[in-house]
Amino acid sequence: MSVDVRYKRRVRGFTLIELVFVIAMLGILIPITSSLVIDSYNYYSNILNINNLSLSADNALRSVTNDIRKMYQIQNADDDDLHFTLADGEERYYRFDSESETFQVCKESCDDDANFGVLASNVNIAESSFKFYTELIEVENDIDPGGFEYPMSPTELETPVIFIKVEFQLDWDEMELPFMTIVRPGTPS
Question: Is the dihedral of CA 68, 150, 131, 75 positive or negative?
């Protein structure tokens, strides 16, 4: 009979001290774990947004690059606008719109703003422009993209445009993502 009494004493629940210790440990581990999960989600969200901006910029650069390669004649050009005719007679009008902070394209009836489509958004207009190079400059270390004059209209051109530089910067959540392409038009105009 004495054996059964000892066995019954050993089988029991948690003590109050053990429960308090477990609750205190959970009180420490849950905030640490939840902050790690939240930080991971925020990091993933930032990477996803940057990836979407990069894809948008890549598509915009591909579009403008392909059209400039098929260019026949510049209609109007300045820092923010590039309007030209393609070799097949179609028109293209690319512009940086300061109101909506976007890079836009129009393929037909470009007199109406409703016909412009957005290629890239979150564009920093102050860091975005078209540049037109009319001569080759050789520098010891690389091609120097600065210091060239570019035409305000096609009638001011005395020499053909050899290269067109399209550069823009996308801004998102304190990040600056610069993008650029330098393209040789199909037929210098």
Answer: negative
